[in-house]
Amino acid sequence: MRKLAILLALALAFSACLLALSACGDDGETSSAASSEASSADSSATSSAASSAASSAASSAASSEASSAASSEASSAASSEASSAASSATSSEASSAPEKNPNALATNGENVALGKTYTTSPLYRQGTDYKWSDTAEITYPDTDNKELTDGILPGDDATYGSAEFMGFAASCPDYEANKYAAVTVDLGEVYALSKLTLHVGTSKLTGGITAPATIEFFVSEDGTNFVSVGMANYKDDPTKPDLAVTLECDVTGRYVQARMTSAGWMFVSEFEAS
User: How far apart are CA 116 and CA 43, in angstroms?
Assistant: First the structure.
């Protein structure tokens, strides 16, 4: 009986040991699993952070490169436009400058327009109502079509009715269409010119006459294509009836032209070129 009790006690003790060992195994597996899960989570988090950082860096680099490329293209375009504008301006200035003919004749300081033929814009024809009339006689005509190059200038006592003058008016249909009255002299040959002069009537002539508001000189070799030489600088002189408006220049041409603007009358007596 006593042996049986001892055997039962040993069996119970052995069972208890087995249960304890089983519990330890389960705890180890749980701990290992937890550790593995924690490690995996850390690894995943680290990987995610690294991936996010790499993506951010790549995005930043791409953005920077795109911005740099856009800036470079804008700068290049601006530079190209500026260069094109400068080139266009230079081309425009170059095309407006009169070209000089190396074979032009020297004037030797003489008035080479003297005695030469010329053409003008229509002179004014004043009707009975003081307005333009196609059928009226020219009010202030060009005597014998030679007044502008005959070398004869008005005297100090000249009036608007003196034969040395011819008269243009801003109310003439041709002036209203072109916005100027012109006088063109054919020099007969291409000359090297240093001075152009147009003699005009002043306010001393009275009757609402004054020196033209502006006078611009032109030259041409064919009588069709005219290039501006420049605007003359002057002002009306009421102390004398005739004013010599001169432009110093360095050009060549066969045809010389003066274009006048005014709000009223424009009287001209002589055109000189030397």
Answer: 105
Token pair in block for residue 223 = 């009588």
pTM, 2 dp: 0.65
Q: What is the DSSP string of 87-128?
A: HHHHHHHHHHSPPPPTTPEE-TT--TTTT--EEESPPPBB-T
And the tokens for 64?
């920077």
Tell me the pLDDT tens digit for each residue of 154-204. Answer: 999 999 999 999 999 999 999 999 999 999 999 999 999 999 999 999 999
Beta bridge partners of 272: 197
Which of these, 264, 232, 231, lies nearest to 160 by C-alpha position? Answer: 264
**Which residue in the block uniquely carries the two structure tokens 């069972």?**
15
Under 8 Å between Cβ of 229 and 186: no
Fold of domain 105-273 = Jelly Rolls (2.60.120)
Ramachandran region of residue 137, left (φ > 0), alpha (ψ -120 to 50) or beta?
Answer: beta
Q: Cα 58–62–67 angle (5° rounding)? A: 150
- β pairing state of 227-231 and 265-273: unpaired
Which of 142, 139, 246, 158 has the alpha carbon at shortest distance from 201?
158
Taken in order 110, 239, 234, 221, is the CA torsion positive or negative? negative
Kindly state the helix (H) or strand (E) to which residue 246 belongs, with its residue range: strand 242-261
Residue 207 carries which DSSP code?
T
Identify residue 189 by its one-letter amino acid code.
E
Give 133-160 pLDDT, tens digit per residue: 889 999 999 988 899 999 999 999 999 9
Q: At 12, phi and psi to the nearest 5?
A: -65, -40
- Compute CA 242 distance to the chain's CA centroid, rounded to the nearest angstrom: 39
Report yes or no: 130 and 169 within 8 Å, Cβ to Cβ.
no
